[in-house]
């Protein structure tokens, strides 16, 4: 099958100003999978190689860029808070005719997908979370520099360049595609979190939930409480925070696990 028939870029209007979410879509059959990236990432760059491995190949898969990131538009009047990201994502899925999807969220994208599943349960039949952000992110420790160390004006006029130098070439490769205002507001959205927190929302969801933790990362806070709430927690060997990049085969096997 020609490449253009298997993999296409699509979009949907999600804002009153006409702003669009865009995604790379892999054709296939069966229940749809939706992949959502983390802060400063881009969905196709993080997920395509994994979602086409044998355990996962053949399913319709949407690798979606949140507003302000990757291929999507960058509206200046958007808040970029987690709930608002989730609502915009819901509008894109509605436009694509998606319901009851298996939704895969990484890092910040995990928090967004938890909010999505809570706010629009018709859209999500299962959650697979790769080191999702479950609690409000504290400000940088004294002496450290992070995105939220800057005001919005400071970040957009030089702070982002400083952060790009700090994070290293892998993350910077996709972070540089983000709108500085969107990245800054999203970082403050992570500091604010959701209400209730993403952790509490996740524990209350009635759908199948899998939480993946990289063995090279810090231990998962509250793991036993998540497991008691029915969340399947799996440690992935030879992986850090970017599990799908560090150990794609193991990541694919866990996404395929039923």
UniProtKB/TrEMBL annotation:
SUPFAM superfamilies assigned to the protein according to its UniProt record, in alphabetical order: alpha/beta-Hydrolases
A Pfam family assignment: Abhydrolase_1
Superkingdom per UniProt: Bacteria
InterPro entries: AB_hydrolase_1, AB_hydrolase_fold, Carboxylesterase_BioH
Domain AB hydrolase-1: 34-138
A GO term, aspect molecular function: catalytic activity
PANTHER family: HYDROLASE ALPHA/BETA FOLD FAMILY (PTHR43194), PEROXISOMAL MEMBRANE PROTEIN LPX1 (PTHR43194:SF2)
Stated name of the protein: Pimeloyl-ACP methyl ester carboxylesterase
């Amino acid at each position: 099958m020609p490449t253009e028939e298997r993999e296409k870029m699509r979009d949907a209007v999600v804002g009153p100003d006409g702003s669009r979410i865009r995604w790379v879509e892999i054709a296939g059959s069966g229940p749809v999978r939706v992949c959502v990236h983390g802060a400063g990432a881009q969905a196709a760059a993080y997920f395509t190689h994994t979602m086409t491995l044998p355990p996962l190949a053949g399913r319709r898969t949407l690798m979606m860029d949140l507003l302000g990131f990757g291929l999507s538009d960058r509206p200046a009047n958007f808040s970029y808070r987690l709930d608002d990201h989730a609502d915009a994502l819901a509008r894109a899925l509605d436009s694509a005719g998606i319901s009851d999807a298996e939704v895969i969220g990484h890092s910040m994208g995990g928090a967004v997908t938890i909010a999505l599943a809570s706010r629009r349960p018709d859209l999500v039949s299962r959650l697979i979370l790769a080191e999702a952000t479950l609690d409000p992110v504290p400000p940088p420790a004294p002496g450290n520099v992070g995105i939220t160390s800057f005001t919005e004006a400071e970040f957009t006029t030089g702070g982002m360049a400083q952060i790009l130098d700090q994070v290293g070439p892998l993350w910077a490769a996709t972070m540089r595609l983000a709108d500085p205002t969107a990245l800054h507001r999203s970082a403050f959205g992570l500091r604010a979190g959701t209400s209730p927190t993403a952790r509490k929302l996740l524990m209350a969801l009635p759908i199948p939930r899998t939480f993946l933790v990289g063995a090279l990362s810090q231990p998962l806070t509250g793991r036993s409480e998540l497991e008691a709430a029915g969340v399947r927690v799996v440690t992935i060997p030879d992986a850090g925070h970017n599990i799908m990049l560090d150990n794609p085969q193991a990541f694919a096997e866990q996404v395929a696990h039923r």
